[in-house]
Amino acid sequence: MNPVLRWGRTLGYALTLPVVLVTLWWVWSADSTSYYAPPLQTILTTFGDVWFSERLRADVLPSVTRLLIGYTGAVVVGVGLGVLLGANRTLRRVTEPVLEFFRAIPPPALIPILFLFAGIGDTAKVIVIISGAVWPVLLNTVEGVRAVDDVLSDTSRSYGVTGLARLRHLVLPAASPQIVAGMRQALSISIILMVISEMFASTNGLGFSVIQFQRSFAIPEMWSGILLLGLLGFVLSLLFQLFERRTLRWYHGLRRSQRGEN
Amino acid sequence: MSATEVRPARAGAEPARRRRPELPSSVLGLVGLIAFAALLELLPRTGIVSADYFPPFSEMVRALVEAAGTDRFWAATAETVQAWGIGLGIALLAGIGLGLLIGSVEVLRRFTASTIEFLRPVPSVALIPLAVLLLGLGLQSTLLLVVYASFWQILIQVIYGVQDVDPVARETARSYHLGRWARVRYLIWPTALPYVMTGVRLGAAVALILAVTAGLVGIGTGLGAEIALAQSSNAVPLVYGLVIFTGLLGVVVNLAARVLERRTLAWHSSVRADVGG
User: Fewer beta carbons under 10 A from the terminal one: N or C of chain B?
Assistant: First the structure.
């Protein structure tokens, strides 16, 4: 098929439903007198006024910074500990029930405890994000490291690939599909924790602002905050997909060929 | 779009070499749990961390046991479990139904893909203020969050699962002129089932998180609300006790989901492979 035509078609598929939905929302809400559901036009105008202002620096930036630091921390700690536990059979079996327990605690329940310890500052919120998001990364890494292909493992041992080289060229690549899957779960948990920790106790941030708007009945502002949180989630997941596509290109190719799709 | 998370979990068998007499996993795991409890007891007792913020393990347990003697505690537990169950149920029905439909109709899938990809990562907690305004405080608001969070997990898995139908099996079904329902029953559903079960497992865990969170931020009742109350009244050991209890609840949910997965997929290679190892 003509590439231009193909692009047009893909774009058509991707845009039709969103455009229809937004149009419906726009038309239906246009002369809405409902206090809680203001016209979409009002929400969008408010969006610009509220978020492209001082708030961008005072609320959005601190939230996103805490999120990124916390998430990175969770990934580093999770992969590090996971490699350690995955490589040591006894250690893994000793720690498994404890780790399963920690994973099973709904992460937001840790917020009151961690705030007892660390106050309600930035550090506390970063710790909250790390302590909730680390488990899927950790447990997936353990699982991935554990399941490294035996033949590959023996081969690299025969060739004298040990230590860091083994980690870099065998263990991490082999475990990467699992690790990335864990990282994806961790990302959505991180966003939840960023918002909840700010709703629970904070003086700035996105979650704090949105809940303030709701409590002061600033309805269009509240809607614009929800919209912004939604966009943030969407953009982060988009970035993550790009990252995943790069790191796991070989894996998806392998899967496709195994399934016989060229 | 990715396939890693969606792939049904495949527990690899342990390599059999270097077998020497060793303790069974259950014993080692128990040792780990006891060591961890001992650590929680000793850290505050030796003054390494302040007992004001971190009471010894025995006090956490005592606070939990005391609470467990009250009706209030069990009412809260029932409320959390109820919100979890109803929410997950709705999400399952909607997720599986829509997933089968969207997954098997090519046109639908193409038109909805972008919208699903946009709505799915929207954090459900962003809906909290909206839920409070539109539905007020209570079960309905909690349910909105629980359903929203778990629905996408399940929907995505089902859609992937339906698309994973083996090309040869599909051609075979076509050659044998299987009707629409027969195709769903004998071709699509068995293929999608492992994915559905992964969706159930992920969805069940997320649903519990949101059921507790709703209480924590004050829009619902249940264990989350009890934790928030204990914290604001400075009953520190009780906060820990309740968190431990929600963790145990989470363990039960995870285990139940895994048992269900094994039961329903006993015939599937990813589960069968475990039996030998």
Answer: C
Q: Which of B121, B129, B250 sits opposite A105 (nearest CB)?
A: B250
Query: Which DSSP string do the residues of B102-155 spell out, in sequence order?
Result: HHH-HHHHHHHHHHHHHHTTS-GGGGHHHHHHHH-SSHHHHHHHHHHHHHHHHH
Kindly state whether residue B58 falls inside one of the protein's structural domains: yes
Token digits of residue B180: 């629409």
How many independent structural domains does chain B possess? 1
What gap in Å lies between CA B156 and CA B100, rounded to an integer? 10
Identify which of B3, B35, B129 has the shortest CB distance to residue A214: B129
B146: which residues sit within 8 A by CB, 6+ positions away? B83, B84, B86, B87, B88, B91, B207, B210, B211, B214
Residue bearing tokens 């805490």: A66
pLDDT per residue as tens, chain B (277 positions): 344 444 444 444 445 555 566 778 888 889 999 999 999 898 888 888 887 888 899 999 999 999 998 999 999 999 999 999 999 999 999 999 999 999 888 888 888 888 888 888 888 888 888 888 888 888 889 999 999 999 998 999 999 888 888 888 888 888 888 888 888 888 888 888 888 998 998 899 999 999 999 999 888 889 999 999 998 898 899 999 999 999 999 999 999 998 998 888 888 766 554 444 3
Q: Which ipTM did the prediction report?
A: 0.83
Q: Which of A116, A117, A192 sits opposite B125 (nearest CB)?
A: A192
CATH architecture of A60-200+233-258: Orthogonal Bundle (1.10)
State the residue range of the domain holding B160: 54-272
User: Is residue B64 within 8 angstroms of chain A, CB to CB?
Assistant: no
Chain A nearest CA to B71, separation (Å):
21
**Which residue of B209, B253, B258, B274 to mutate against A (max A Cβ within 10 Å)?**
B209
Determine whether the interchain pair B247/A102 forms a contact, defined as Cβ–Cβ distance below 8 Å: yes
Contact B114 A236 (CB under 8 A): no
- Give the chain A residue nearest B1 (alpha carbons): A241
